[in-house]
Amino acid sequence: MGTSVLHIDLNALRDNWRALDALSAPNVETAAVVKANAYGTGAAKAARALQKAGVKTFFVAAVEEGVALREALGPSPEIGVFSGHMAGDTDMIADMQLTPMLNSLAQTTRHFEALPGHPFGIQLDTGMNRLGLEPNEWDAIKEIVMQAGPRLVMSHLACADEPDHPMNAQQLTCFREMTDGLNVRRALSATGGILLGPDYHFDLVRPGIGLYGGLPFEDAQPVVRIECPVIQVREVAAGETVGYGNTWSAEGPARIATISAGYADGIMRAISNNAVLFDGDTPCPLIGRVSMDLITVDVTHLPQTPHALDLICPHQTVDELAQNAGTIGYEILTSLGERYTRRYIG
Ligand SMILES: *Cc1c(COP(=O)(O)O)cnc(C)c1O
Fold this sequence. Notes:
It contains 11 helices and 19 strands. By secondary structure, the chain is of the alpha/beta class. It has 2 domains: 10-212, TIM Barrel (Alpha-Beta Barrel); 224-345, Lyase, Ornithine Decarboxylase, Chain A, domain 1 (Beta Barrel), CATH 2.40.37. Helix 1 (10-22) packs across helix 3 (43-53) and helix 3 (43-53) crosses helix 4 (63-73).
């Protein structure tokens, strides 16, 4: 096989959801965010596994993702759409029974005119200045909106991965001021907010990254393993160079494995000369530049030539690899492309 294999552990995914669910009170619903192809793991498979574990509400970023998800999950779960009700979305929202999280006056007007009586949620901006109604806008339309019976009123935290950041309490206060006393279900927290404790939980929480084994959920089980097949192995002599730009040269005789994975598979070029792959428990340095489809690895110290090397595995988590690339686990996961063979466990 000439492509890398993405092993996706659906048991770990379900366990992570259960573990996050256990962090909030029993009356708090734990939804699941499956946008961006369920953070690269495959939205249909991941969402079906989560549905079996008891997830009743899913969230996606765009209506198009919601359509595919509805086809995978059938009629029962609620599917919320963070980008709300955009021009051109009306038929998909109606046909696929999606719940747009309306985020502006214009969207609210559009939704009420195009689909009166159709379920919706409201997004409030509590300081992140990204999506949602500002406090003064909310004041102006709150009464009309509440009469229409929103399914959920939500906001999003900007700094939840930093528990001591004053922005967390500031946004909590703002959210309370905007929603206290209203007869509606409320949601403020993604993975980071769940870990901030019960004040942040309200009626529903919306974890994404923690389900897929990423920080800030430190107790997460790993969900993803990347296994890269070795295509060729060669001996190089002292002084020979490897890869584009001759950025690595052998100090002594070396054995170099060429594996099938590259930046087209979301393995960032920034880890060139700065990561390891694993043969079982044994680390093997990535050498030279990451190219589009190939990576070169020093396997001189291995007693036998391996058939494959692991890039993400229990010895090197998504977040550790991300750190080498100067990014975050979210970006690594969502960059994993279409070329992998995705193999599901559980
Ligand atoms: C992506 C997203 C989430 C999930 O966030 P994680 O940090 O991955 O848990 C929740 N809510 C909103 C509005 C989002 O955009």
